[in-house]
């Protein structure tokens, strides 16, 4: 799943390639992907793209008509959604390859971009709304660790009194915007905290360490992804991960073996020596 560092670079790429350009056509191919009925995709034709920004793990493509009336295209990538850029956009609405074409935007200069989904369940979604907060998932977004509002005090206030396991809480978009399965594993490993620890059970020192690593891991990953083409972003992310999807590998910090814990239909990777006092979780 694209998380905030990768979504930020997708956002930067689209902003650089689309800002100021006029949409010629907009088509959403899979009906369930479009979560709003009015305005319709056809209503985007003739509108100028004025900005592209990141909202947690979503992107906001802002458009304006000739008198400045705004419409926002909010894209949530789900687990396997992505962006495919075309210097010359195809005229048809079919695309060969593993990913399913979910939506295609053609611009008046002939370029354009596709929204694709390579997953089994096709979870990418599109909202077209006058206000970004008209999208419930946007309105409920929690603290973004990459925002200027993030600090230890605000981080601690989100954790205060929460009995939820810390890995699940880090991934809860209403608590912290932009973190998914991969970076939650990386953050907890760097902070030397078990994924099963309840937020309310963390010491003051652990909260401070976790706040620092939450910001640092995401900020470093965002900087490392800067300038990487969308087609190469996922590979760059996976190559940089130290524990996530590294089951059986050697921990780069202590030399122990990375283990995997499966719970609630999800998997977490962790280092027993660094995070759980040498205990293998089950």
Structural class comes to alpha+beta
The global form is: elongated
> What is the fourth-level CATH superfamily of the largest domain?
MutM-like, N-terminal
Q: Strands across the major sheet, in which order?
A: 1-6-7-5
Family: Belongs to the FPG family.
InterPro entries: FPG_cat, FPG_N, H2TH_FPG, Ribosomal_uS13-like_H2TH, Znf_DNA_glyclase/AP_lyase
Keywords: DNA damage, DNA repair, DNA-binding, Glycosidase, Hydrolase, Lyase, Metal-binding, Multifunctional enzyme, Zinc, Zinc-finger
Organism: Microbacterium terregens
Structure description:
Helices cover 29% and strands 22% of the residues. By secondary structure, it is an alpha+beta fold. It has 2 domains: 4-139, N-terminal domain of MutM-like DNA repair proteins (Alpha-Beta Barrel); 152-275, Helicase, Ruva Protein, domain 3, CATH 1.10.8. It is elongated and about 60 Å long. It starts with a helix and ends in a 7-residue tail after the last helix.
Question: What attributes does this structure have?
Answer:
Helicase, Ruva Protein, domain 3, elongated, 29% helix, FPG_N, 22% strand, N-terminal domain of MutM-like DNA repair proteins, zinc-finger, lyase, Fpg/Nei family DNA glycosylase, four-stranded antiparallel beta sheet, FPG_cat, 282 residues, alpha+beta, single chain, 8 helices
